[in-house]
Amino acid sequence: MKESMTSAYESDPIFQTNPLQVLNIVTRIQSREIALPDFQRDFVWDSTRTAELLGSIMSRYPVGTLLFWEQGDGQTFASRSFDGVAPGTSNNPPSVLVLDGQQRLTSLYQALTGAGDERYFIKVDEFVDIPSRTVREVPDVDFEKAIFSMPSTARSGRRSQSLLPAHLPIAEVHKFDDWLDDYADRVENDPQLPLTAREAKSLYREMRDKYISPLKTYGLPVLTLPSSTSMDAVCTIFETLNRTGKPLGPFELLTARFFPQGVNLRDLWDEAEANHRTLKEFRIDPYNVLQAICLRVRGSAQRSDVLKKLDGNDIKTHWESTTAGFAGVIDMIQSDCGVTSQKWLPYGMLLTPMAAVWDKQRELKPLERSQALRRLQQFFWASTFTTNYDQGANSQMGADYSRLAKWVSTGEGEAPEAIDELHISATTLRTATVRRKALYSGLICLLVKNKAADFHTGQSMTPTRTSEAESHHIFPKAYLAKQPGSESSELILNRSLIDGETNRIIGSLAPSMYIEKMKTAYGAQRLTDVLASHAIASQQASGLLTNDYTTFLNERLEIVIQFIEEATGKTIQRDASR
Q1: DSSP-assigned beta bridge partners for residue 35
Q2: Hey, which bits of 39-192 come out as E strands?
Q3: What is the pTM of this model?
Q4: Cβ–Cβ under 8 Å, residues 529 and 453
Q5: Mean local confidence (pLDDT), 246-265
Q6: What is the DSSP code string of 94-133?
Q7: Rounded (10°) angle between helices 286-298 and 265-275
Q8: I need a surface site. Which of 52, 255, 331, 393 has the fewest CB within 10 A?
Q9: Nearest Cα to 403, choosing from 395, 412, 394?
Q10: What are the Cα distances from residue 293, in Å, to 114, 172, 229?
Q11: Is 134 helix (H, G, I), strand (E, B) or coil?
Q12: Distance, CA of 306 to CA of 251 (rounded, Å)
C-alpha cells in the first residue's frame, strides 16, 4: 500500500523541487530567461545583508528556498528584469518568473556580475592560516571582516578602504586562477610572508575549492510551479511560504495579467485614491474593488472567480464607477450611519456589495433615490447586528448582491437575508464584550447616528469630536473589580465615547459619585440630555445613580434595542427573564 501511494504521488507532483547552481541562475537572469513579475517590490537589501548571504553560501549553509513559476505560451504577465541587468536585444518573454527570492537573487546577481551600487570583495588571507599553511574551517573565519563592499562610485559620507592585492573582487571569481598567478608572485617576493609561489598556489587553491567554488556551484533549492498552476493556487502557495514578506494577492497577479491588455491596475488605483481621499482614509483594499466588479459582471466575489473570470474589458467598463461607488458608500455611512472613521467600521467587507450596487440608486428620481438609500442603510445595520459577515464573507457578498441589486432600487423581490430571515438576539447584545468587534463598533456608530453628544461641550459628535473622544467604561473597571460577583466590565453596553476630561472625572469612582461631580462641572440638565443621547438612563432610581450594574445594563439594553429596531426595521425579541 505504501509503495502504491508513493508512486501515485511521484507520477503527478504538484510542483517540482530541484536545486539550481548559482552560476546557472545568474546566467539566466542576465539573458532575461528568469525575470520578475512587474508587481514585485523594488530591491531593498543593503550591502550588509548581501555580504551575509555571500558568507552563508561560501560556508555552504542553507539560504532558503526560491519559488519560481514557469510561464507557458498562453500566459502574458507583465514582467521586468532584475535590478542591474543591462537592457537586452531579445524581445522574448521570460520562461520563469520569480515569486519568492527576489532580494536574494538580486544580491547574488549584482555581487557576481559587478552590477548595482556596490562592489564586493573577499579578503583571501582571512580564510587561511599562513604559518601552518592550512585553510581555516568555517567557524574560524570572521566573515564580517572577510567580505566587504565599496560603492561603485564615490559617495559622500561613506568611507572606503584601500584595495590590496589580497582583496579578490567577487565579480571576478571566475578569473581566480589568473588572479592567483599574480598574487603568488607577490607573496613570494614579500619578505613578511614565508611562502614560496608554489606553496601559495597550493594553499589558495585549497581555499578556492572550499570557499570560492560555492559562489558558482552552490545549489539553491528551487520550488517550481508549472505553467498550468492556477492563479488561485499561486496566491495560496505564496501566502503560505511568505508570511512576513510582501503579500502576493489577486490584485498583484491581475496587475501583471492585465498590463498587456492596456490596463494598469496600479496606476488606476493611485488615481482612484487621488480622486477619492476616503478610499485611503478607510483603508480600502484595491482587491475589494475587483471583487465588486466581479459581483457586477459575474455575480461572485470568490477569489477563484476574480482571478479566472475577470478580463481587461471588465476593468475598463466598471473601474471608475465602482471606485466612485466605494467613495459614495463611505460618504453615506459617515453622514447617515455614524461611521466617523475606519476605526469604527463594523465590517470592511460589507462595503463591497454596497459599492457594487451604488449605481442603482443614482439612476433613480430624487424621491425614489432617498428611499433606495434608506434601504441600503437598513441593509448595513441589519448585517452589522445579525453579525452576518463574521464568517464566509466572500460567499455572503455574492448572496447579498444577488438580492440587493433589485431590492435596493424598488423594494421589491427578495430582500437580503439579514433583512428578512435572520434574527437579532437580545441575549447576544446583553452579553457581548468588546471582543465582538462588529457589535461593539455597531453600537458606537449607532450612538453617533442618534446624535450622541460630547460630554464636555454638549454638542453632537462629529468626525473631529469623535477622534478626540475614546471608548471608555461607564461603570469604571476599577470600581467593578471591587464589587463581588459583578458581571464583566468589558461588555459593550458598558462603553461609550467619552472625552479625556470627562474620563478623568470618572476615574475609579462609583457612578453616583462622578455624576454629582459632572453636574457641578457641566450643569444638571445638560448632563441629563447628554446621558440620554448615549442611551443611558439617569432618573433617580436608575441603575447608574444607584450603582446597580445589572440594572444599568438591562436599562441600557432596552434603549439600544429601540435604536436598533428603528435602524433595521426588525423587531427584536426580548428575553422574558429580564
Answers
A1: 97
A2: 66-70, 79-80, 96-100, 118-123, 128-129, 134-135, 147-151, 167-169
A3: 0.73
A4: yes
A5: 81
A6: PSEEEEE-HHHHHHHHHHHHT-SSEEEEEEGGGGEETTTT
A7: 100
A8: 331
A9: 412
A10: 46, 53, 24
A11: strand
A12: 9
Q: 539553491: which residue's cell? A: 220
Q: Which residues, in sequence order, are bridge partners of residue 80? A: 36
Judged by average pLDDT, the poorest of 5-9, 35-39, 332-336 is 5-9
Count the neighbouring beta carbons within 10 Å of the beta carbon of residue 175.
11
- Residues ≥6 apart with Cβ < 8 Å to 145: 123, 126
Q: How far apart are CA 63 and CA 399, in angstroms?
A: 46
Q: Is the pLDDT of residue 287 over 70?
A: yes
Separation of alpha carbons 160 and 297, rounded Å: 60
The DSSP symbol for 264 reads -
**DSSP-H helix ranges across 483-548:** 500-506, 511-522, 524-533
Burial of 365 (0-12, 13-18, 19+ CB in 10 A): exposed
pLDDT tens-digit profile of 129-153? 988 999 999 999 999 999 999 988 7
Pick from 302, 313, 312: which is nearest to 232 by CA? 302
Q: Are 238 and 99 in contact, with CB atoms under 8 Å apart?
A: yes
- pLDDT band (50, 70, 90) for residue 14: low
520's CB contacts (< 8 A; 6+ apart) are: none
Question: Which grid coordinates belong to 82?
Answer: 532584475
CB-CB contact of 128 with 122 (8 Å): no
Number of H-type helices and E-type strands within the chain: 28, 13
End-to-end CA distance of the chain: 62
Report the C-alpha gap between 70 and 96 in whole angstroms: 5
